[in-house]
Amino acid sequence: MQVPWRDRRGRLVKLKALVFPLLFVPGLLTAAWWASGMLGGRPITEAIHETGLWAIRFLLISLAITPAARLLNWPQILLVRRMVGLTALAYGVAHLLLYVVDQKFALLTVVSEIALRFYLTIGFVALLGLAALGITSTDRALQRMGRNWKRLHRLAYPIAILAALHYFIQSKANVSEPVFVTGLFVWLMLWRALPQAWQRHWATPPMLAIAAGLATAGIEFAWYGIATRIDPWRVLAASETLRYGLRPAHYIALCGLGVGLLVVARKAAPLLPRLRTRGA
Q1: DSSP 56-123
Q2: Which of 36, 85, 239, 253 is the 20 to 30 Å CA partner of 215?
Q3: What is the pLDDT of residue 2?
Q4: Closest to 175 measured CA to CA, from 219, 213, 240, 212
Q5: Do residues 154 and 132 make contact, with C-beta atoms less than 8 angstroms apart?
Q6: Where are the beta strands (DSSP E) in 141-255?
Q7: CA-based radius of gyration for the chain
Q8: How far apart are CA 63 and CA 188, in angstroms?
Q9: Residue 181 above 80 pLDDT?
C-alpha cells in the first residue's frame, strides 16, 4: 500500500511529507477548541461551519496549485494537488457527518432537509461531485478513463461554484467572506482562460488582480441587490474607498498583486548571482 508521503517507487517525497500533517491542522484545532469550550454555546454548529469552510478553502487551494506551478516555475508542487483535493473531500464529509450529529442521527430528517432546502441541496450535490473526483483520483482510474478522466475532473469548477453559492446562502446577510472566496475563484478561472504564453508572464497576476477585484465588487453588489434588502449602492460605495476599511474586492486585488510580487521575485532570483559576479 502506497503511503501519502512516498512516490510510486516508495521513495520519500519531502514536500508531501511536509504538507500531509499540515492538512490535519484545521480539524485538530477545531476539535481542540470544541473540547476547551472555545466554540461558544453551540459548538457543533460552529464545527459544522468550520469544516465546511475548510472544505471550500482546500478546494480552492487545489485549484491554485496549477497556477502556482507555472507562475513560480515550481512543478514539484503538483505532487500535492491530489492530496489537497482529497482533503477538501474529507472536510466536506466531516461537514455532512457533523450535520447528521446535529440532527441527532435522524437520517430521514437529514434527507428531507437536504431535499427541501435549496442551499443544502446544492451543498450535497457539490459533495457528491467531490466524492466522484476523489474516487477517480487513483492512478488506475486515470489509466482506465484516459481522456475522460480530465473531462470528469473539470467538474471541480462547477463544484466550486455550487460550494460558493451554498456558502453565500448559509451566511445570509454578512457575505464578506463568501464574496472573498468567490473572488479568488474568479482570479483562478481568469488565469485558466488565458493563453499558455500569457499564463507564465510576470504582468499577468497584477492585471488579473484588477480584473478579479472589479468582478468581486460586482458580485458583492449583485448579491446584496438580488438576495437582501440592503442597498447595494452603499456596499459598492464602500468598495470604492478605504474610509470603511478594506472590502473583499480590495483583498482580492492585494492578493493578486502579492502573487505578482512573488512571480517577479522568483524570476529575479536566478539573476542575482550573475549581477554579483559582474559587480565583483
Answers
A1: HHHHHHHHHHHHHHHHTT-GGGGGGHHHHHHHHHHHHHHHHHHHHHHTTT-HHHHHHHHHH-HHHHHH
A2: 85
A3: 64
A4: 219
A5: no
A6: none
A7: 21
A8: 7
A9: yes
Burial, 91: exposed, middle or buried (Cβ in 10 Å; 0-12, 13-18, 19+)?
A: buried
DSSP reduced 3-state for 154? coil
Residue 231: DSSP 8-state:
-
**Length of the chain measured in residues:** 280
- The answer to whether 51 and 97 are in contact (CB under 8 A) is no
Contact (Cβ atoms closer than 8 angstroms) between residue 147 and residue 188: no
Q: Give the pLDDT band of residue 225 (cuts 50, 70, 90).
A: confident
The x, y and z cell numbers of residue 204, run together, are 499577468
Q: For the chain, give the mean pLDDT.
A: 89
Q: Is the pLDDT of residue 279 over 60?
A: no
In tens, the pLDDT along 58-98 reads: 999 999 999 999 999 899 999 999 999 999 999 999 999 99
- The cell numbers describing 217, all together, are 465588487
Give me the residues paired with residue 12 across strands: 6
